[in-house]
Specification:
Largest interface: A-B, 40 and 41 residues
Structural class of chain A: mainly alpha
CATH class of the largest domain in chain A: Mainly Alpha
Strand content of chain A: under 5%
Distance between the termini of chain A: 64 Å
Number of domains of chain A: 2
Number of strands of chain A: 0
Order of helices and strands of chain A: HHHHHHHHH
CATH architecture of the largest domain in chain A: Orthogonal Bundle
Helix content of chain A: over 70%
Number of helices of chain A: 9
Oligomer: homodimer
Chain lengths: ~220, ~220
Amino acid sequence: MSYLAERRVEEKERRRAEIVDAAERLYAKKGWDSVTMDQVAKAARLSRALLYVYFRDRDELQFAIGERALEMLRTRFIEAVARHVRGLDQVEAIGRAYMTYAQDFPHYFDVCARFQAHEMSAQPGSNEGACAVAGDAAILVVVDAIRTGIADGSVRADIGDPMLFAVTLWAFTHGVIQLAMAKGADLARLGISIPRFGDNALALLRSMGAPRPAG
Amino acid sequence: MSYLAERRVEEKERRRAEIVDAAERLYAKKGWDSVTMDQVAKAARLSRALLYVYFRDRDELQFAIGERALEMLRTRFIEAVARHVRGLDQVEAIGRAYMTYAQDFPHYFDVCARFQAHEMSAQPGSNEGACAVAGDAAILVVVDAIRTGIADGSVRADIGDPMLFAVTLWAFTHGVIQLAMAKGADLARLGISIPRFGDNALALLRSMGAPRPAG
DNA sequence: TCTATCTATTGACACTATGTCAGTCTCACG
DNA sequence: CGTGAGACTGACATAGTGTCAATAGATAGA
């Protein structure tokens, strides 16, 4: 029966998703480092051994959460872009979207940060090409916005490669958010509030992309 | 005898340093995650249990390496500043120094990145105030350079708080290096070489700080 | 010199978590 | 039925962390 095999696959995907759900809840609550496979198994009401049927190891489970995180991020980027017409505004909106994303889903941002920081050597078992620099799909949204901006004149035309510019903007923004997320308290002690920090960074980035007479 | 107690303290510090040395070598060779207390103990020719006399736990050992890393970073910053007179040039030199530092001591940069990313909640047992945002001492060098730049006219005067600007520059630069370190291969695949990436970022940062008619 | 004592050092233990595997359970199909 | 494929599990082996009682070594004082 072909549609039985189909059902099997479907069931398998559901189980897998349930596991990721459970893992994600724990991740959000306690941080990845203190989530054990046992806890995940219990939360999903399965035996620990079964997790290893669906995921090669702990890292691959985190990787699965990462895929969700990147997908969500891309969605937010697209929504942000849709709210503006001028390219420069879109780029700024993307930056702001990244910030609110990090606030709304700290654990998602955490995965992104780990993907970004550790080699993440696309395990041979999984869908390899899925994640490159920072979720290709997401970065492409930025590139598009930049291209739009160059076309409508809101972004300086003399930036070189839009891809290079996009990756750089990404790195800048990521660095700012990461610092804000981890060191909010220390920043406060220096008289810097998170919103001020974020707004300032965003303004600087905007001025970087805008043509000479500031826009 | 007072000078005997003194000798004791000295010996203790030497031992401690030996342990950190061993740990650091392993860190540099294999990355912190795959360094075990056992390996450190063997490398230092001590029993594993003794490590716990000198360091509360594995994290505190890494922390000790972090102190060295931050000290080294500050040194590099100071050297970089000393090679220039105009504030803007000093700031740019600091950024470049951070990049070469990351190349020269990848494991030191790795510790910095972890300090920056994880709360690093200054353990009550150790010298707490030692590390705030990113090794206060290091960031102060940046602040000084910015102040110098404002004074000599090479840096836009209308940036607000120099501290805010310094922290932001730090975050930007850190983000760029982190991405370059971890994703060099993927960047290359996008046609972006590390040097180009770094130089471009540095140029952008410089243009951010320079007064309107680019300097 | 002998001994009390203090500190550095260690072997062995308890605990936690990971990943594996042989074996059990379930159920659609012949 | 009963059988075979795939879902599922209990129990094991391994590895690493942190702790503790006990040992070894040196020093000051009798």
